[in-house]
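Build the 3D complex.
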Amino acid sequence: MGVSRISSTYMVDSGIANLQTNLSLMSKIQNLIASGQNISTPSDDPTGLSQLLNVTTQMNQDATYNNNINSGLGELGAAEVAVKGIVDISTRLRDLATQAANAVNGPDQLNAIKQEVDNLKSQLVSLGNSTFGGHYIFSGFLTSTSPFSTAGQDVTYNGTPSASSFQRTVQVAQNTFVPVNVNGDDLLGHVTVTAGVPSGQGLMYDVTKLSIDLQNQDYTSIRSDIDSIKTDQNSVLNLQTEIGGYTNQLQMTQTRINDRNVVESQQVAKIQQVDMPKVISDFNFQQNIYQASIGVMSKIMQTSLMNFLA
Amino acid sequence: MGLNIPSFFGYYNASTGLLANQMALDTINQNISNVNTPGYSEQRVDQTAGDPYPPASLWNSSKGGQLGQGVQVTGVTRAHSNFLDDQIRQQSSSLNAQQTIQDNLQYAEGIMAEPKSNGAGAAMTDFFTAAQALSTTPDSPATRQQFIQSGQNMLNVFQEEAQQLQNLRNNLVGDPNNSGTLASSQAALTVNDINTQLSEVTDLNSQIESVEAGGAKPNDLLDKRDYLLGQLANKLNISVDYSTTSDQVNVRIGNNYLIKGTKQTDSLNIVTNTGASPTPDDTPALVQLASTSTTINSDITGGKLGGILTVGGNAAGTTTIRSVLGGLDTTFNQLATQINSLQSTGRDLNGNIPSAANSNIFNLAAGTTLSIFRYSINSNLVSDPSLIAAANDDAGAFDGPGDGRNAQAMAALETTNLAGLGNTTLSSYYNSQLSQLGTASKSAQDSTTNLTNVVQQLTQRQQSIQGVNMDEEMVNLLKYQRGFEASAKVMNTLNQTIDTIINKMF
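Done.
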């Protein structure tokens, strides 16, 4: 705007106002450089803020899901170790049963085999009572109760029965829950021995029956035990596959989350991270303007007609 | 020879020249002295040539023409534009309102502490992370403790921010529940200032009237009054009506006269709102005309007071301190209600459905204040975290301490669209509230910048009319100095001619 007449006050006032404008621009740039962040308060960039908050919300959720996945993977890992042990033991049991079924074995040998079978049974119980982070992994929701207890030859399952809901899950995405346990009863079964006659199901039943058959030197029955143990082993293997499946699911989700995290971090950086070279060159530019305006102002302030009037 | 001229005629003529130049020098003196006085208008001596001698008449046909009778000073006038004053007042009213809004929204942004890691949003995230941890290991005392602690922490952060916002608002317009706070509020202080300045303007109007009655031009008083009117416009969106016959002004707010010339017809009162419409929560303070107790809040749209009433009020669709506070309140209230309802229907570590005393994680006390101020963490759960219902009530049965499905449901609230929030999630509702605040604050900042420029340009124009320019004054100083010297020289010459006549002719 062209102004025909300039007053002395105006020169000073507008000079000061311009210096203030330059200074406030410089202080803005200084803030950017010092914080390294484009958005320090919501009004810095309301649109950017809303993007930023949405992305960081997603990132925080993902971090939480990642925690869940890690804890699930830990538990499934412990279960995998235990189940692998159970598979090994059942293989050994089959070998022993096959060995015992041979009629040339006398009572001494059978007794020795029975000793080992009984040992293996107690190993099975202890594997069934495996813990992770202080809680039992095969007892369903009853994580503070040891799932298998023994009394004489009896092995009782104390966890959540397989008929009711027993599966603990971790959340890995908004509506996705992945199980992290298998049922102990499905895995090992249980057995009650009444007057030398076992009743029950699963590996526990068959290993107990094998032990009793060995004691009774009942070769026919021992032979049939070989197949039953094989069947048990198959169902354990099925559960092992199931655990492997859950683990896979968690790992794949984790990979997805990590991939997403990379993209999201880039997005955050794009919105929030200050472009240093640009800002610093802006700062230098602004500094030049500021220095020039100070210089001009000092020149103008000193000039007066009075200096030239005698 | 035609015209008879008295011998001493020239003395008079030269003396008017001396006097006029003297007066012009005095005016320059005044201008230079006031070069930095705010509101000062440059003054100039108005001169005309004196009436010629002899005066025109039928009998005296001027043989040889008339002679001038020196210079006449007709007055001292100020260079001023009432029109620009009016425009500047209007724009500064808007500017001050926007600036007040901007300042307070920026305070609110500071209080919300976003996007940083210690605001309510972060506290909410922490709480849900703790809920997830609780869902994976519900039988661990540590995660239970962590869950209830993060709940406590989240409540603290929400309440602290809400309280600071409430204080900010109380400081602006007073707390309607505590009328004692009004007197020290910014609104009341501004109303006091306005009333003082109204009476000052009236006083000046009276002084101006009496000076004008004496036939003089009260330049400095007018400057002072116009400056005061400008100050008044910074606080209130007044309208100023100029009299066409004198230098008097009337001052209005809306259609209500506050000053009519030399009479102050009204002043402002501010009272705590105790009525039903508008509610005290929406409009904590009412500004009224002292004479009729008519509420004029709707007339006050500009100036600092207008800004205070806007940002301290709760008009629909406007981002105010109250609306930000309301956003916090709604967010937490929804969160707490949902969490509580899950807590009351789940089962604790020992398999019990929580008793009435334990059925809430966040207890809500009865009262009329905003719910955020009435929430507290259930101390029973803090002292015994096993009472947290992390497990489901599975068709009337308890599945075991490893059941974290209820905690899972609590954690899933983070991503659930809630009807009470217009079918958005807690975090997106909270984020949109922040975004609104940011947008409103940004737009107030932009308006402030724009209006500052407008006011600056108008002031530049005003200054180009009424401002004092030192160089100009210097030139004039010389000009009138020379004029004065020349008049004196003429006087001297005349004296010599008289001397010649009296002393040297004989």
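DSSP finds seven helices and eight strands in chain A.
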